[in-house]
Recover the amino acids of this structure.
């Protein structure tokens, strides 16, 4: 995943999570199952961590082999949440 794609995905995830926070906490009308929401927040955290590394804002010194591991972790998370993305896309079309 390219950096710009990751940043775009971060913005998308933030919007979906924010919307679902409002629905859950303010309106008592959640659209996502807990596991779907959890998968989205895990994906967001992983992408935010990669974004910090790319921007040089990481709070830990990371060696190149760790960066590759983080990228692999993020890609694994992305693949795991694809079914959740499809659910979210269906809800957004409503």
């Amino acid at each position: 995943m390219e950096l710009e794609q990751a940043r775009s995905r971060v913005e998308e995830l933030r919007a979906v999570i924010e919307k679902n926070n409002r629905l859950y906490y303010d309106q008592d009308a959640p659209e996502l199952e807990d596991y779907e929401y959890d998968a989205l927040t895990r994906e967001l955290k992983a992408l935010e961590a990669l974004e910090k590394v790319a921007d040089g804002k990481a709070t830990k010194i990371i060696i190149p082999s760790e960066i590759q591991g983080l990228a692999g972790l993020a890609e694994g998370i992305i693949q795991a949440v694809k079914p959740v993305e499809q659910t979210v896309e269906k809800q957004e079309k409503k």
Observations:
- Helices lie at 3-26, 34-54, 64-80, 82-93.
